[in-house]
Specification:
InterPro entries: Beta-lactam/transpept-like, Glyco_trans_51, Glycosyltr_51/Transpeptidase, Lysozyme-like_dom_sf, PBP_transglycosylase, PCN-bd_Tpept. Keywords: Carboxypeptidase, Cell shape, Cell wall biogenesis/degradation, Glycosyltransferase, Hydrolase, Membrane, Multifunctional enzyme, Peptidoglycan synthesis, Protease, Transferase, Transmembrane, Transmembrane helix. GO terms for molecular function: penicillin binding; peptidoglycan glycosyltransferase activity; serine-type D-Ala-D-Ala carboxypeptidase activity. Helices cover 34% and strands 11% of the residues. By secondary structure, it is of the alpha+beta class. The protein has a domain of 195 residues: Orthogonal Bundle (Penicillin binding protein transpeptidase fold). The strands form 7 sheets. It has a 5-stranded mixed β-sheet, covered by helices on one side. A 5-stranded antiparallel β-sheet has the order 5-4-18-17-16. A two-stranded antiparallel ribbon has the order 6-11. Helix 4 crosses helix 6 and helix 15 runs antiparallel to helix 20. The longest helix is centred in the N-terminal third of the chain and has 20 residues. The radius of gyration is 35 Å and the shape is elongated.
């Protein structure tokens, strides 16, 4: 019986002997040579290691994880993302010095032996026996490659990585059998190529191409002798021989490699000495991984692309499968992002709102008729530092946005108007529109159970705003009581159905509730939702789902299917054309005068919520729609007596801060682009009731019940519109700090 240590395990010498027995046996089996004595060394104790013949015959070699490149619509690079920074290259694109250096230091007899180097095993066994431990390994380059395949297949799962790297007899036997298979299938040159592409070189660089770029900012084919020797030396211990953190240790290791290259005849002694005398000269390129590196503030769009990939079934049956494809990378993703529009949006943001301001802004642009997202930016950059965030204010919670979106104020009113026109109401429709009134009661709903008011009231911006008003004037002046009366007459169901057709849902993803207060924009929505909904007006009533990805190619040039936009009729062309005419009036002479564009047809709507916690401008031309939101992501700043972008504002409203942001962003985005016009629709003036604007009998029935007190809109005037309370659905609710995204990352509620 072999002697055992007190712990019951074999000594290092005995373990090495056991392994060499297995190695010799396996080599002999494949060579057809009988070695009866090999069995005495013991293949494996039953129950601890698989029998050699029981190991599956085929090594599964998964595609190597590589970097994914995200491009804009013109082919410009937005960012690169990867789980492992790797670019696979052919052997011909790797410096001959590098090929010789790695073989010399890792497996100098690589071209002479098979999968197992029996001579090397015996040499290692002798050394280990003399030292009483494991002083020298005997793995060939092929065996090391097989181990790296196991590690690559394990991905980022720590348990699988531990299993792939465990130093057990069973694992060694498995490596051995697969190494024999690989040698037969691939041949030496392909094994060397694969090894150099899979190996980790430290500093987040996987494979020789990434390593050459990381340490020397050059391709692998241009590596010099000195550079190649340094990189080959790193492989044994990337942390210990890291030249960035310990150039002295890296130099010693490099010189060992050079000596070894001379010893095996790859270079002369003189060449080795000259190279040793040359100091290591690094030209380090910092890793550029992830959306944080995106150009022109496109980090949030980059993150949105990732969310689309992980959530759309076209890329895999479930999120786990899609995540594997994303992490494997090697993709080239061409997106819808328009570089001109993105640059213009970001320049406008920086001009009007500073990163350090108490409030933030988000701008999203969409192309009518295609749903293509052309720009997406915000004032707080993508990142982890102060006044940075990873929360995308432009999108819904499901795609990385805030929990609820942001209350949209009077930018919701065109949805009510569109629903009314679809129900047959004329664009000249007139309502008494008093300065203040109770919410109507009762109001019909889709369920058939009427909504009843329980005492809440709504009021206009100023006491001087007393009707009657027709639709054109009510839209231009953003008269609250007019739209509450309109929704009372047509009922809630047409409005909810219209918003559903327009893809207008709450930031949480939920449909809007059937309560009259939604006519004043009391519920939170995202800028992308709003820009895309308004794009439907520009597209003459046809809604198209938003899309961010144009095409995807794999590392081998294969095209992948991508999600397509789906377009559907949301309203008649006549209705859309009428809304365009109404919203053109908002810019011409209404609350959005400061936002108007020159030289082209444009339309839009302002919106401001109670206590000035949110201000919006959503507008469009026939070929571009854009939404701008300004406010506190955590909804805890009232925009009175506030400095934004270096300018003082007594009070903020939709036409004052968001409006100019929209104007400048749109102007740059459309510069040099065609200027189509809207289809003209004449909306005549409606005769006004000669009375004093008092509501007709039955217009304001007593009774009560709001969504909740204060869900009104303070569109463009003093605080408190829609009293009692305010239009912010979160007023009076105290949340724990970890539920408020505006904390350390400065983001919205998440």
């Amino acid at each position: 019986m072999p002697k055992k240590r007190s712990g019951g395990g074999l000594t290092g010498t005995q373990q090495a002997a056991k392994f060499v027995g297995v190695s010799v046996l396996a080599g002999a089996v494949l060579a057809g040579i009988a070695l009866p004595a090999a069995g005495a060394l013991g293949l494996a104790a039953k129950g601890t290691v698989q029998g050699f013949d029981e190991i599956p015959a085929n090594l599964k070699r998964p595609p190597l994880s590589q970097r994914t490149t995200i491009l804009d619509s013109q082919g410009g690079q937005i960012a690169t993302v990867y789980s492992r920074d790797r670019t696979v290259v052919d052997l011909k694109d790797i410096s001959p010095y590098m090929q010789k250096a790695i073989v010399a230091i890792e497996d100098s007899r690589f071209y002479e032996h098979g999968a197992v180097d029996l001579k090397g095993v015996l040499r290692a066994l002798n050394r280990n026996a003399q030292s009483g431990g494991v002083a020298q390994g005997a793995s060939t380059l092929t065996q090391q490659y097989v181990k790296n395949v196991f590690v690559e297949e394990a991905g980022d799962d720590p348990d699988k990585v531990a299993e792939a790297t465990q130093q057990t007899l069973g694992r060694k036997i498995q490596e051995l059998k697969y190494a024999i298979q690989v040698e037969e299938e691939l041949g030496k040159k392909k094994i060397l190529e694969n090894y150099l592409n899979i190996t980790f070189f430290g500093q987040q660089a996987y494979g020789i191409e990434a390593a050459a770029q990381r340490y020397f900012s050059k391709p692998a084919k241009k590596l010099t002798l000195e550079e190649s020797a340094m990189l080959a030396g790193i492989v044994q211990s990337p942390s210990r021989y890291d030249p960035v953190n310990d150039v002295e240790e890296a130099t010693k290791r490099r010189n060992i490699v050079l000596s070894r290259m001379a010893a095996v005849g790859d270079i002369s002694e003189a060449e080795a000495e000259r190279a040793k005398a040359t100091p290591i000269k690094l030209r380090v390129s910092k890793p550029k991984n992830g959306c944080i590196t995106a150009v022109d503030g496109a980090g949030f769009f980059c993150d949105y692309v990732r969310e689309v990939f992980l959530s759309d079934p076209v890329f895999g049956k479930d999120r786990e499968e899609r995540n594997k494809v994303w992490n494997r990378g090697g993709l080239t993703i061409r997106t819808t992002l328009d570089p001109q529009a993105q640059k213009s949006a970001q320049e406008s943001i920086k001009k009007h709102v500073y990163q350090t301001d108490k409030v933030a802004t988000a701008v999203t642009m969409v192309q009518p008729g295609t749903g293509k997202i052309l720009a997406m930016g915000q004032s707080r950059p993508y990142g982890f530092g102060k006044n940075e965030t990873q929360i995308n204010y432009s999108v819904n919670k499901r795609m990385g946005g805030s929990n609820f979106g942001f209350p949209v104020g009077s930018t919701f009113k065109p949805f009510v108007a569109a629903a009314a026109l679809e129900q047959g109401k004329p664009p000249t429709q007139t309502y008494p529109s008093p300065y203040q009134m109770p919410y109507p009661s009762s109001v019909s709903t889709c369920s058939g159970k009427p909504w009843l008011n329980q005492g809440d009231t709504v009021e206009n911006e100023n006491e001087s705003e007393v009707g009657p008003y027709n639709l054109r004037d009510a839209m231009a002046k953003s008269v609250n009581t007019y739209f509450v009366q309109m929704i009372a007459e047509i009922g809630m169901c047409p409005v909810v159905e219209m918003t559903t057709k327009l893809g207008a849902v709450q930031g949480s993803g939920e449909k809007l509730p059937e309560v009259p207060a939604i006519s004043l924009g009391s519920k939170g929505m995202s800028p992308l939702n709003m820009a895309n909904a308004y794009a439907t007006f520009a597209n003459r009533g046809t809604y198209c789902t938003p899309t961010a990805i144009e095409a995807i190619k794999t590392a081998d040039g294969k095209s992948l299917p991508v999600p397509k936009t789906n377009c559907s009729k949301a309203m008649s062309e006549r209705t859309a054309d009428s809304i365009n005419a109404l919203l053109s009036g908002v810019i011409d002479s209404g609350t959005g005068e400061k936002a108007g564009l020159s030289g082209r047809d444009n339309a839009g709507k302002t919106g401001t919520t109670d206590a000035r916690k949110n201000a919006w401008f959503v507008g469009y031309t026939p070929n571009l729609s854009s939404a701008v939101w300004v406010g506190s992501p955590a909804q805890d700043v009232e925009m009175f007596s506030i400095r934004i972008g270096g300018r003082y504002h007594g009070s903020v409203f939709g036409g004052e801060v968001p409006g100019p942001i929209w104007r400048d962003a749109m102007t740059g985005a459309l510069d040099g682009r065609e200027a189509p016009g809207f289809v003209d629709v004449h909306i005549p003036d409606a005769p006004k009731d000669p009375g004093n604007g008092k509501p007709k009998p039955g217009d304001n029935k007593p009774g009560g019940g709001g969504d909740k007190p204060g869900d009104g809109d303070d569109d463009e005037g003093r605080p408190g519109g829609g009293r009692p309370g305010g239009g912010n659905p979160w007023d009076g609710i105290t949340l724990p700090p970890d539920m408020i995204g505006g904390g350390q990352n400065g983001g919205g509620w998440r």
